[in-house]
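Before a colleague's protein record goes any further, I have to sign it off. What it holds is a sequence and that sequence's fold in token form. Would you go through it and say whether the fold makes sense for this chain? The record follows directly below this note.
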Amino acid sequence: MIESLLVANRGEIARRIIRTAKGLGIRTIAVYSDVDAELPFVREADEAVCVGPANPAESYRNAEAILDAAKQTGAQAIHPGYGFLSENADFARAVATAGLIWVGPGADAITAMGDKINARNLMAAAGVPVAPGTADPAATVDDALAAAEEIGYPVMIKAAAGGGGMGMAVANDATGLTEHYEKVRGYAERVFGDGSVLLERYFPRVRHVEVQVLGLADGTVVALGERECSVQRRNQKLVEESPSPALTPEQRAKLLAAAVRAGEAVGYRNAGTVECLFDPATGDFFFLEMNTRLQVEHPVTEAVFGIDLVEAQLRVAAGLPVQFDPATLVSRGHAIELRINAEDPKRFLPGPGAIKTWIEPEGEGVRVDSGYVEGNVVTPSYDSLMAKVIVYGVDRAEAIERAKAAVAGFELIGPKNNLPFFAELMDNAEFVSGDYDTALVTRMR
């Protein structure tokens, strides 16, 4: 097993990785920006190194500073968490070049799946269903207009190098496409350093369902069930649950098999997620993207399978077998995750600030992965995620009841937060029925 691990991240995911690593007897090293010095993950690590100021480009995305910290502390491996450098193929290569273990997929797999157009084409060749769309970048607005006529409106305009719901816009006609094309292209150039865009058919009533895959050290790729991620605002997830209430056993089997083919097509190792759009009207699903990292919502998979995905990541990275038999692993019960963000519960605009009261909910089937404690300050420098509340029940109804109780029991004063939204959602008839789609939040607001 790995003996020392540098966690190249912050907040709740850094704490979560540190917790598992320390349980395995691994020495842990945290890196932090100067504004994060008082956060729990810094003191919970065995060692901590400040790598720069608040600006992520000068700290958490500063590859040179992180590699220097690894050298300084004698780290054997680096776990990138999610976001920041987690899907940066150049960083993954730099880690390997430095003689360190990268806890994630190989750089070639990250590169292959990092460009949405390349990923679409790879998946189509591997027999994974893809939505009607462009096989090459739409280099000009005229190219986009011609492609849209062939695909059929409405269309989704996407940054080819984007991810996490960023760099996207919907066009219902040629006028809308002309208006949004340059906006998406400009955004992609500024944020991702690549202005390439693609077009895909947009489905107004669709569900977002994803599959947790794990590429084992022996080369086998396995699927560890699916997660429903259709409760979203601005194409970004707020709630995830497993299993999806939308799928029949036959649909589930097809989806999981396609996800395994996707992983096999790029020689995938370690944890990753194959994201798909599911059309409840037809039962068809289409490849959306592959996240070549650990997902924010991985705890719901852990809850229903009774496994530790971070431990699995560390074992795969070390060339060891995982701690469970994938052939006999069975999903049991139902889990729901709520993302507790520092944002107002109506318009979902950021609302950072000092935490005056922070009392986490407790109870049977309740887990809280948090990045903060009372007295900390949520700054505007990073994502608004403060904590994740994960609940587990023998069935979906029990999980919802436990989610209600957990939301009511979470005492949080200081930053604006979306707990009132979750209280509303857990009583929403559409959500409770399980028959909802990605436009649910829009309808609620």
User: Anything to note?
Assistant: The longest helix spans residues 174-192. DSSP finds 15 helices and 20 strands in the chain.
